[in-house]
Amino acid sequence: MKNILVIGGGTGTYTVLKGLRAFPVNLSVIISMTDSGGSNKVLRDEFGLLPTSDIRQCIVALASTRTNGLIRDLFTYRYSQGTGITGMTFGNLFMVALTDLYGSQEKAIEKTCQFLDVRGNILPVTFDNTNLVARYESGRQVLGEHLIDDPDETLGKQKIIELEVFPPAKANPKALKAIKEADLIVIGPGDLYTSIICNLVVDNIGTAIKKSKAKKIYVLNLMNKFGQTNQFTADDYLSEIEKYLGKNTIDYCLVNTNHHFSKSTLKRYQQENASLVVNNLRTTKRLKIIKGDFVSEYISDKVPGDRLKRSFIRHDSDKLAKAIYKLI
């Protein structure tokens, strides 16, 4: 079977993995480790752990269909009551307990994967304790993913011109091995800087992807996000990705063509200063643009207890997976 590696974090990566799980491939995922907001802030500040939420989402996405539905529901359950536990998920707390029991977060991930009969390899991009640093066009610098993800009104209108991690972080050796062995690498979808590029700036990750002989696919976002990709076009996204990977690294770009969203849905995005991503990319000898309807018919609602902003127009797992599998 072919080796497919997915790189990212958050809901976008969960969506890709959930779809690809049904295909006869060897799956691995490299997950961002710089989240510093919401329940992850508690894990980092109070327990001294690396962020766990994206790991948990990937574990649930790749959990065997034989896994008891109740267990899967428990791992996604978010507490909405109590002053200290509101916003936390059962799955995160489960892994905190395992880390305490086994003395290793890496071991806790391994044991959780065994418990849920996960099909695939869950690989944190690094095990070093690090944070994102963004430098904006005004020269201002911001430390912490949560501040980049949800900036103030003034900063949110500025363009991010450089992203790095501080202190510098060493790549997880297993992540580098997965990149080297991959037949196909899928990057995205997800917040450009806080879910995607945050992986690429970890030491040696970007270089390893560039050198890899695997086909490289970028899944373009559906919507722009205030504070990260204000009024970005498809070309802007690709240019930023290749700024950190190297020019002409991406072989395929998956672009959604279904923009038939309800007025009420678009209004919700407008209230957050978000906009549709306009496609201005064309197929060339080097880059192939794969167009299609990749949107989910389901509009996501806010989960009780969740204090973070989430996208509610999302990609469809099955549609994305079918398009990706055809490119092997």
Automatic annotation (TrEMBL):
Q: Which UniProt keywords apply?
A: Cytoplasm
Please indicate if the UniProt record lists Cytoplasm as a keyword. yes
Q: Name one Pfam family in it.
A: CofD
Q: Which GO terms describe its molecular function?
A: LPPG:FO 2-phospho-L-lactate transferase activity
Which NCBIfam families does the annotation name?
Answer: CofD_related
Q: What is this protein called?
A: Gluconeogenesis factor
